[in-house]
Amino acid sequence: MTDRSVIDLPAAVEGRVLFQEPLARYTTYRIGGPAAALVEPHNSTDVVRTVEFARERGVPWTVIGLGSNLLVGDRGFPGIVLRMGKAIGEIWEGGLDRSVWRVGAGFPIPLLARRTAECGWAGVHRLIGVPGTVGGGVYMNAGAHGQEFKDVVREVTLVTADGTVETRRTSDLAWRYRASGLGNVAVLEVTVEFAPEQPKRLHAEIESHLTWRKAGTPFTEACCGSVFRNPAAPVAGPHGELRTAGQLIAAAGMKGFRVGGAVVSPVHANYIVNTGAATARDVLDVIDTVRKRVVEAFDVELELEVRIVGEE
Ligand SMILES: Cc1cc2nc3c(=O)[nH]c(=O)nc-3n(C[C@H](O)[C@H](O)[C@H](O)COP(=O)(O)OP(=O)(O)OC[C@H]3O[C@@H](n4cnc5c(N)ncnc54)[C@H](O)[C@@H]3O)c2cc1C
């Protein structure tokens, strides 16, 4: 049944509004209960109007991109989910200074990696295997193989929780490993700056990173990428230093550990995959057990990288 607090939302926006929409359809985990309303904004005005609508009625709201870093609870999200897709995904390649591009939040990261590399610009090409949107990538400060969004972002244009459109400089953001410190906002657009490099060299790097991904991660399975952040410092293991969360989890003997349909991937231990019918509860139980075992084995508390949304 449609929640009465969101029933007037279609009159406020041009884009599509879906009521009681299962969020499993919008996450790479393929897990998650319904949102009271899911909005696919048609333009940035729709984003502002949705945020204002939510604020006036006291309804919780959140933003998603491709849903590639999300674990949505089995009972879903009791509010409005703004899904930033193609309509908020325009790209403006270079201006007077051709190294500076503007990119809409809904633009896919792998496409940006390829497009910039083809034009001879380095900075995000190593993010070729990060399957999210630019908005999600900036929000998470996504990174791979030594590149992170924080190193290329110059400005972020966003909608604040009170519905104001603001442009923030990168120096105003609280960047850290896999976080931008942006809080409860909707990113609309980012300005990014790249460095010149030979397209041939960039293409070769892209191919080698893709080969690594295909061999070293469960690339085609339902998952959210890395579940845990890497530890701040290396930890002494039985056969040398352990630098990543995956190495710690594997050394704690957790590869293949399963609860219901959720399994610690035997290919890469920092990936907990949905083998078909996993619930959010299954994944959370695996997360709890992995954390406990890593504390017991190495006295290290693993921090979550995946974002938990909604109710269990
Ligand atoms: C197979 C696989 C491999 C991965 N590899 C990597 C990797 O190498 N490195 C890495 O860093 N990540 C990796 N990830 C995780 C994920 O792809 C990144 O975190 C990505 O940047 C998330 O983008 P998204 O659009 O999917 O965001 P979502 O998952 O939809 O959202 C993630 C967070 O960002 C917020 N958000 C999303 N869009 C906006 C917006 N427009 N405005 C405000 N907030 C927003 C959401 O509220 C949420 O808190 C991987 C995931 C998978 C499935």
Notable traits:
Uridine Diphospho-n-acetylenolpyruvylglucosamine Reductase, domain 3; globular; alpha+beta; 5-stranded antiparallel β-sheet; Uridine Diphospho-n-acetylenolpyruvylglucosamine Reductase, domain 1; 312 residues; 3 domains; single chain; 4-stranded mixed β-sheet; Uridine Diphospho-n-acetylenolpyruvylglucosamine Reductase, domain 2; binds flavin-adenine dinucleotide; 20 strands
Explained architecture:
It is a single chain. This protein has helices at 9-12, 44-57, 109-118, 134-140, 199-216, 245-251, 280-298, and strands spanning 16-22, 34-40, 61-64, 70-72, 77-83, 91-92, 100-104, 121-122, 143-144, 147-148, 153-159, 165-169, 186-193, 195-196, 235-237, 240-242, 258-259, 262-264, 272-274, 307-309. The protein has 312 residues and is α+β, with helices and mostly antiparallel strands. A five-stranded antiparallel β-sheet has the order 6-7-13-11-12. Helix 3 packs antiparallel against helix 5 (199-216). It starts with 8 loop residues before the first helix and ends with a strand. The mean pLDDT is 96. Flavin-adenine dinucleotide (FAD) is lined by residues 28, 62-70, 84, 105, 129-133, 135-137, 139-140, 142-144, 178, 185-187, 219, 223-225, 307.
Helix-strand blueprint:
Blueprint: H1 9-12, E1 16-22, E2 34-40, H2 44-57, E3 61-64, E4 70-72, E5 77-83, E6 91-92, E7 100-104, H3 109-118, E8 121-122, H4 134-140, E9 143-144, E10 147-148, E11 153-159, E12 165-169, E13 186-193, E14 195-196, H5 199-216, E15 235-237, E16 240-242, H6 245-251, E17 258-259, E18 262-264, E19 272-274, H7 280-298, E20 307-309
Parallel strand pairs: 2-5, 3-5, 4-20
Antiparallel strand pairs: 1-2, 6-7, 7-13, 8-14, 9-10, 11-12, 11-13, 15-16, 17-18, 18-19
Helix pairs in contact: 3-5
The protein binds flavin-adenine dinucleotide.
The site of flavin-adenine dinucleotide has 34 residues, from strand 3, helix 4, strand 9 and strand 13.
